[in-house]
Amino acid sequence: MDETKSGDPVAVLRRIAFLLERTRAETYKVKAFRAAASTLLKLTPDEVRTRAEQGTLRELPGIGTSTEKVVREAVAGQTPSYLSRLEETAGPLADSGRELRGMLRGDLHTHSDWSDGGSPIEEMAMTAIEVGHEYVALTDHSPRLTVANGLSTERLVRQLDVVAAVNSHLDGRLRMLTGIEVDILDDGTLDQTDEMLDRLDVVVASVHSKLRMDSDAMTRRMVAAVRHPHTDVLGHCTGRLVTGGRGKRPQSTFDAEKVFAACAAHDVAVEINSRPERMDPPDELVTVALEAGCLFSVDSDAHAPGQLDFLDHGCARAEELGVPPERIVNTWSVDRLLAWSAG
Q1: Torsion on CA atoms 88, 90, 93, 97, rounded to nearest 10
Q2: In angstroms, what CA-CA distances link 224 with 92, 179, 182?
Q3: 147 and 240, same domain (yes or no)
């Protein structure tokens, strides 16, 4: 039975937060529902029910007017009206790409609150199960991206232990892959030690600085990163922003034929970044990568659990642009994927 319709207020609150995140609602709304769910997790179901019946829910930290109403309706066995309104408009985020979306087995680019994501690793893992993933790579940022709280080597080592513990707890329902979104530095080197990168399942290499670098220099920078033996995926390759709260940003310029030829030669997947404000690479560059014979990875770049569903956007673009599913690495089984990334 769907727990969001069977009187479980925590499941209801989590579902509301998920739906708000996937539609890019205001962060304060999402935080309110996640905070309320966290508060109720510390109580027994009987304690929640008693407080709902006695009208004392608002005495608890993190419970406000809207969340109180949701909890009371859920405890009464009703589908909360707040949830019903969201579910009515919660269809696919894109009109096409549904067949490809059904073929994806996982996501190779996600973030947690260890860097600039908004939720704990465990919440990202549980939501990945709920959206149907078999695996998900945790790829928090590398140290030099201080604005995103990038992970030092020491913090990343600790994170590997946390991921191992999460996988043990999940007991095969999902495989969380260890990973990193590593910065491509000015000279094309990667912002982490080779020894550390060798311990990870998936390495996404992305440019986050000096995006307006001269085209020739940017080309050399990206080709050098692609040639690095630990690079598996070239992330959001132009760095552009086409909409959203951060404003617009033009795409970086580089010799796409040279960069994608290097990707094809070194078996590096070109990411189709599914964030609606990125739509990266642009359509014409996806075509260049296709003609170069590249592999692809359709990734959410999720910074919150609800954003895992951003894959709808990427799948729609990949399907419309004629990217063959067999060339999309996250349609592969986890064993095939890990054999490729280790190759």
Answers
A1: -90
A2: 38, 20, 14
A3: yes
**What is the mean pLDDT, run by run of 10 residues, along the chain of 343 residues?**
66 96 91 96 96 96 96 95 93 94 98 95 96 98 96 97 98 97 98 98 98 98 98 98 89 98 98 97 98 98 97 98 98 98 94
The closest of 14, 9, 21 to 71, measured between CA atoms, is 9
β partners of residue 233: 204, 269
Interatomic CA distance for residues 203 and 181, integer angstroms: 6
State the DSSP code for 172.
T
Sheet of 106-110: strand order equals: 106-110, 135-138, 175-183, 202-206, 233-234, 269-273, 296-299
Which of 43, 21, 52, 53 lies closest to 34, judged by CA? 21
> Distance of CA 335 to CAs 37, 117, 144, 163, 332, Å?
35, 27, 32, 18, 8
pLDDT of residue 92: 87
State the Cα–Cα distance between residues 98 and 315, nearest whole angstrom.
7
Q: Residue with structure tokens 């311990």?
A: 199
Identify the CA nearest to 10 among candidates 70, 86, 87, 76: 70
Residue bearing tokens 């680019």? 109
DSSP letter for 7, please: T
CATH assignment at residue 76: 1.10.150.110
Peptide bond into 120 cis (omega under 30): no
Last residue of a domain, one of 88, 113, 145: 88
